[in-house]
Amino acid sequence: MATIEQLGYSAFFIALTCIFAIVARRLNERMSKDGLVKDLIFEAIAAAELCGCCFELIIVADNFGVATYAVFLFTLTIWWGRNWGSATACPYTYMEQIVEGEVSFKEAALKIWAQLMGGCCIFRYVQLYWWFEFAETHEGRAFEDCKADLQVNLYLGAFIEGFATLCCRLASKVISEKDARFGAFIDSFIGTSLVVAAFNYSGGYFNPVLATALKWGCAGNSALEHIIVYWIGSCVGAVLSVPLFKTATFRNMFLAEKTKSE
Questions:
Q1: What is the mean pLDDT of residues 17-23?
Q2: Fewer CB under 10 Å: which end of the chain, C or N?
Q3: Has residue 83 got a pLDDT over 60?
Q4: Residue 100 in 3-state DSSP?
Q5: Distance of alpha carbon 245 from alpha carbon 236, whole angstroms
Q6: Mean pLDDT of 203-214
Q7: Alpha-carbon torsion (98, 104, 105, 106), positive or negative
Q8: Rounded Cα gap, residues 254 and 262, in angstroms
């Protein structure tokens, strides 16, 4: 039976990962010249931090339940929002910017590539910690064959990932425009709630890089199925949020005060 001490080893690893990321960001800030290369490194660091922590959150969810997992994720989401700066560790934010005409396809592709490199390479660091087996919850996990999280029909899974991503992005845009006092907490609560709601159906990733780093090649999904659910599903949902957010109907429903004041 999992104990608080074993949960402590997971919390320690997550905190250590965040500390390493802080140090890496500060080194990049001091040593790199402003420009695309510096931004790419920031994206790689953010993706590595995200995926490193979420690998350990799998341990937390498996041994301590989804409620404990949700508390960790809620806290981490707020932390990341305050420390990543302009980095997003998420591909569809740049796809939205392409639609908006804010970034070129080349720059977006490079940043997505940097995210993938950071997210996928971090597993060796995670694997090393698991290999030491400080806690019983890590026993056998370092070299264990992974299993896909999709528990529903392929297209239903893609719909779940896409619809939840759409909701997340719309909520974030509304909170940002309203400049809510506790916006970061509200945004984190909404995102975490949607993840928990989808957890037993698609896994609730809502981020293609995160899903690929944690579950690419796992038993239960082919490469094409993974792409349809976690890349096409999420990215379509995010891109749809751009025109939907601008519609009069949506703005009257969720930004009524803002619209009236204008």
A1: 98
A2: N
A3: yes
A4: helix
A5: 14
A6: 97
A7: negative
A8: 15
